[in-house]
Amino acid sequence: MNGKIHLHQIHPVLPVWDVVDALDFYVNRLGFRIAFADDAKKPTYAGIIRDDVEIHLQWHDPKEWEVAGDWPMLRIVVQNIEGLYNEYEEKDVFHTYTLLRETAWGTKEFALYDPFKNGLTFYRNVADES
Q1: Could you give the domains of the chain?
Q2: Rounded distance, CA 74 to CA 88, Å?
Q3: pLDDT at 5
Q4: Which of 83, 79, 80, 122 is nearest to 103 (CA)?
Q5: By mean pLDDT, which of 30-44, 55-69, 94-108 is the weakest?
Q6: Residue 101: what are its φ and ψ, rounded to 5°?
Q7: What is the β-pairing status of strands 101-102 and 107-113?
Q8: Strand partners, 125
Q9: Parallel, antiparallel, or unpaired for β 107-113 and 119-125?
Q10: 84 with 122: CB under 8 angstroms?
Q11: pLDDT at position 79, please?
Q12: pTM metric for this prediction
């Protein structure tokens, strides 16, 4: 087995204190669908998918959120950043100051937090738009 090595996917695991509530947010507000869950009624681990992006959600004790911590921040590449921004704006998932902006590092992006303080940044390289 001397074939070419190729990493082609990553499935990050986000901590949440309620997997059912997390599934509701990601499915009904962000447009993901449920890929799997370890239990149909009271899951502690589940996966969601939208297009080629799969994220796993794992239950963690609510006491873990009592102490400020560094929460995960995912950066997700999007083809139609304006369309996604408009979709999420209509679903009222943004903080008051969320905006679609061009950055000094050559991206057009916006960011939001899920109800469990996990950060999601959706972006497109500006050079890819030409």
Answers
A1: 13-62+70-129 (3.10.180.10)
A2: 17
A3: 76
A4: 122
A5: 55-69
A6: -145, 155
A7: antiparallel
A8: 107
A9: antiparallel
A10: yes
A11: 92
A12: 0.88
